């Protein structure tokens, strides 16, 4: 389904929500909005392959329709399970439909729940792919601390985020090029502007330095930035 949600000029812009309308168009929306999304997801699968040994438990927090869940399943052994969590009922319903009749149905545990309270236990891998940015800033450290505490020795976190454009020309370049990416993918000026307004108080990006300091503060022993495309970035953090 084509994402044309922000093309309707007659509708007032309301804060962005992961509702049924968004769930319906989400694969198209995320592909046309996040530069390098397919690469980001695919490489996450290769990281899973490295860190998820026999009987490993992986968490996909803010799983949406399960793109990361699917890549983890594809890259790991048959006894590896994924706990896929999202608090948007339409997203979890879509994910359940997709996996219901698949060979992997028994490897996926779905939870329609808030990632801020869901227990994280014995995890080899936790993935926050474009999700922490929607958690209130003051709650982000606590979530990362809980994730860190829930990892087994050798376990890892994948954190992928839209990051705040730096001051000055560097930031202006990233913002402009991200909008050009959307234009090149067929979004109108109106749709770009309306989505920017809808996301304003909802997706709160932070600087690279803030994210890296928080990973240290949360108790991760180290982190490496392994992906960047324009203003989107991913780290692998270990304990
Ligand atoms: C941009 S999408 C994530 C995309 C997805 N990880 C992927 O790779 O395709 C963000 C998701 O996080 C979910 N989310 C945001 N805050 C959440 C929370 N506090 N608890 C659970 N899910 C949350 C949203 O419902 C949405 O589905
Ligand atoms: O920054 C934007 O304009 C985006 O569209 C980014 C973003 C994201 O990073 O989650 C926002 C909402 C949609 O879920 C898809 C992509």
From TrEMBL:
Keywords: Methyltransferase, S-adenosyl-L-methionine, Transferase
GO molecular function, one term: carboxyl- or carbamoyltransferase activity
Pfam families: Methyltransf_25 (PF13649)
Catalytic reactions of this protein: prephenate + S-adenosyl-L-methionine = carboxy-S-adenosyl-L-methionine + 3-phenylpyruvate + H2O
Classification via CDD domains: AdoMet_MTases
Stored InterPro entries: CmoA (IPR005271), Methyltransf_25 (IPR041698), SAM-dependent_MTases_sf (IPR029063)
Broad enzyme group: transferase
Enzyme Commission number(s) from the entry: 2.1.3.-
GO biological process terms on file: methylation; tRNA wobble uridine modification
SUPFAM superfamilies: S-adenosyl-L-methionine-dependent methyltransferases
Domain Methyltransferase: start-end pairs: 60-155
Residues at which S-adenosyl-L-methionine binds: 37, 62-64, 86-87, 114-115, 129, 196
Subunit structure: Homodimer.
Family: Belongs to the class I-like SAM-binding methyltransferase superfamily. Cx-SAM synthase family.
Function: Catalyzes the conversion of S-adenosyl-L-methionine (SAM) to carboxy-S-adenosyl-L-methionine (Cx-SAM).
Protein's UniProt name: Carboxy-S-adenosyl-L-methionine synthase
Organism for this UniProt entry: Allochromatium warmingii (Chromatium warmingii)
């Amino acid at each position: 389904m084509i994402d044309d949600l922000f093309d309707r000029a007659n509708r007032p812009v309301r804060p962005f929500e992961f509702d049924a309308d968004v769930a319906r168009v989400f694969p198209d929306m995320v592909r046309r909005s996040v530069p390098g999304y397919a690469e980001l997801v695919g490489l996450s699968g290769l990281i899973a392959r490295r860190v998820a040994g026999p009987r490993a438990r992986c968490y996909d927090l803010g799983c949406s329709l399960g793109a990361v869940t699917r890549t983890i399943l594809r890259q790991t052994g048959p006894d590896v399970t994924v706990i896929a969590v999202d608090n948007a009922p339409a997203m979890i319903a879509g994910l359940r439909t997709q996996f219901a009749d698949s060979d992997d149905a028994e490897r996926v545990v779905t939870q329609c729940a808030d990632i801020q309270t869901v227990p994280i236990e014995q995890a080899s891998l936790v993935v926050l792919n474009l999700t922490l940015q929607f958690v209130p800033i003051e709650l982000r450290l606590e979530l990362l601390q809980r994730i860190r505490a829930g990892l087994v020795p050798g376990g890892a976190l994948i954190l992928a985020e839209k990051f705040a454009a730096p001051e000055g020309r560097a930031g202006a370049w990233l913002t402009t090029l991200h909008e050009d990416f959307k234009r090149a993918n067929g979004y109108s000026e109106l749709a770009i502007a309306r989505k920017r307004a809808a996301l304003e108080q909802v997706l709160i990006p932070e600087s690279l330095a803030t994210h890296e300091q928080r990973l240290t503060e949360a108790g991760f022993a180290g982190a490496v930035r392994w992906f960047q495309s324009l203003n989107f970035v991913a780290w692998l953090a270990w304990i």
